Amino acid sequence: MNGSEITGLVLAGGQARRMGGMDKGLLEIDGLTMAERIAGKLSEQCAIVLINANRNTERYRRFGYRVIQDELDGFQGPLAGMLSGLRQVGTDWMITAPCDGPFLSDTYARSMLEAAESAGSPIAVASDETRLQPVYALLHKSTGESLEDYLSSGNRKIDSWYALHRFATVQITDCEDMFENINTPEQLENCRKKVTLSN
Known about the structure:
It is a single chain. The chain is of the alpha/beta class. Helices cover 33% and strands 23% of the residues. It has helices at 34-43, 57-61, 78-88, 108-119, 144-152, 158-162, 185-198, and strands spanning 6-12, 28-29, 32-33, 48-53, 66-68, 93-98, 123-127, 132-140, 167-171. Strands 5-4-1-6-8-7-9 form a seven-stranded mixed β-sheet, with helices on both faces. A two-stranded antiparallel ribbon has the order 2-3. α3 (78-88) packs across α5 (144-152).
C-alpha cells in the first residue's frame, strides 16, 4: 500500500448528546485524548491527517493536525464532515474514523484501499461480523460531487448515500475492539480499564 495516496480524517464534529454534550474527542484515555489516539494511528498509515471538529477548534489544533469545520451549519452528521474533508484533500483517497472509537486496526487503511482497488469501487466501508460500520470508510476524491448533491437535497442518512454507489465491504478482523465506541460515561470508564490492563 502507498500511504501517500490517502488522507486520514478524524470525525470529531458531533454534539455527543448521549454524553451530556461533552466533546468526546477531548476525553482522555491513558493520558491521550481520544482524538489524539485516532489521529496518531491514522498518521502511521496515511500521508496526512485532518481533524473535523466544530467546537473547541483551538484545543484540537494543539495536537498538531489541521482542523477543518463542517461547511454546512447545524451539526448535520458525519456526512457533512466527510464532505468538508473531501473538499480539502490533496490525495486520491480519504479514510475516516470517528473520535469516539479509541481502537483502530494497524492495517485499516491498507485493507480498505486494497479492497476498493480490487473491486474497482470509489468507496469501501468497514464491517464487523454482522453489519456495516459506516463511519469507518474510504472515499475516493471523485465522490465529493455526489455527496454534495446528496446533502443539498436534504438527505443525511449515510447508508443511503453509500447505496447510490458500488462500494466494497471490508471485514476488519485484526482489532477485536475496533468498533467499540463510547457513548456513555460507563463505556468510557470500561474503555479506560481495558487500556490500562493492556499496558
